[in-house]
């Protein structure tokens, strides 16, 4: 697994752990007050954006840009988990940015086959298709 892929896998595992409240061996606030509430956080930062969102970049450049933002998210998930957060919300364009054209957004997108044509679970078969790298960053 490449460094970028292992970082996203670690990030997603961190999110999963935070969502479960299993970030420490101690009893979490959510377990104690399970029926009453859970701890949530909303996070936003100035995203690292493409210098020119109208220009077409390579797939590798797009993945590197998204990975920089995911690195920040990973740090924030760990910080939030230490504070007892069980679920964290990030902005919808926080990983890849915004103001793209239909053409310039293309390197940031992953191929998703039609479920009517191909039976595929990306969690079970993440490497089945070659242009789905952001699923495994």
From TrEMBL:
Residues 52-137 form the CN hydrolase domain. Residues 56-83 form a coiled coil. Keywords: Coiled coil, Signal. It catalyses: biocytin + H2O = biotin + L-lysine. Its EC number is 3.5.1.12. It comes from the Eukaryota. Catalytic release of biotin from biocytin, the product of biotin-dependent carboxylases degradation. This is Biotinidase. It comes from Pongo abelii (Sumatran orangutan). The gene is BTD.
């Amino acid at each position: 697994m490449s460094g970028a892929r292992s970082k996203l896998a670690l990030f997603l595992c961190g999110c999963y752990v935070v969502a479960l409240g299993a970030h420490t061996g101690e009893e979490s606030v959510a377990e104690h007050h399970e029926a009453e509430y859970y701890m949530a956080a909303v996070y936003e930062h100035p995203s690292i954006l493409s210098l020119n969102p109208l220009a077409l970049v390579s797939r590798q450049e797009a993945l590197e840009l998204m990975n920089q933002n995911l690195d920040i998210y990973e740090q924030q998930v760990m910080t939030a988990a230490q504070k007892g957060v069980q679920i964290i919300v990030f902005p919808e364009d926080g990983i890849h940015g915004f103001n793209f054209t239909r053409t310039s957004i293309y390197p940031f997108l992953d191929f998703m086959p039609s479920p009517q044509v191909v039976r595929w679970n990306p969690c079970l078969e993440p490497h089945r298709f070659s242009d789905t790298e952001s699923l495994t960053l």
